[in-house]
Design a protein that fits this description.
single chain, globular, 152 residues, Chitinase A, domain 3, 6-stranded antiparallel β-sheet
C-alpha cells in the first residue's frame, strides 16, 4: 500500500511540476502592435489604426456603400505572415463576415465595392494562441483584400 501511495505522490508531483502555458494576452498584444508598426515602417505603408487595434491601409478606394458586420462579401484575397510567407490565396470567395476572423469583420467595413485594402491583424483578432495549418500560434496576419461586392 505504501508503494502505491508513494507512486501516486510522485505522479502528482510530476504532473504539477510540468511547465504551464505562460501566455499573457497583454504582452502578446504589445508585441503584435510593435511588430505591425515595424512592418509598416519597413514597407513604407501609410496605415490607420482602428480603435480595435487593427491596422489597415486603403490601397484602392472603391465606390458606394460599405459592408456591415452582417454582410456577405465576395473577395479576392491573399493572406501572409509578417515574414512574407503566403498561407492563403482566394479568388471569388463568398463568405459571411459573421463567420470569419475578427480582423476581417472589422477591417472589411473600411472598404467599399471595387476597393482594395491591406489588413494588418494582431494575433488576437486572427487565430490567437492557436496554430492553424500553415499559421503558427500568436501570428500577426497580413491580408490584401479586393472587395468585389457584398449584400446584407
Amino acid at each position: 500500500m505504501k508503494k502505491y501511495l508513494l507512486l501516486l505522490t510522485l505522479f502528482v508531483v510530476a504532473i504539477s511540476s510540468c511547465k504551464k502555458d505562460s501566455f499573457d494576452p497583454v504582452k502578446q498584444a504589445a508585441a503584435d502592435d510593435a511588430a505591425i508598426q515595424n512592418y509598416i515602417k519597413a514597407n513604407n505603408i501609410t496605415a490607420t489604426k482602428d480603435p480595435s487595434g487593427l491596422y489597415y491601409a486603403v490601397l484602392v478606394q472603391g465606390t458606394g456603400d460599405y459592408p456591415s458586420a452582417n454582410s456577405t462579401v465576395t473577395v479576392n484575397s491573399t493572406g501572409k505572415l509578417l515574414d512574407g510567407t503566403v498561407f492563403d490565396t482566394e479568388a471569388g470567395l463568398q463568405v459571411s463576415l459573421a463567420n470569419v476572423i475578427k480582423g476581417w469583420q472589422i477591417g472589411l467595413q473600411h472598404i467599399n465595392t471595387g476597393g482594395r485594402i491591406m489588413l494588418m491583424i494582431p494575433s488576437a483578432m486572427g487565430y490567437g494562441n492557436q496554430s492553424q495549418q500553415g499559421i503558427p500560434k500568436n501570428s500577426v496576419l497580413i491580408f490584401t483584400v479586393d472587395l468585389l461586392g457584398f449584400n446584407n
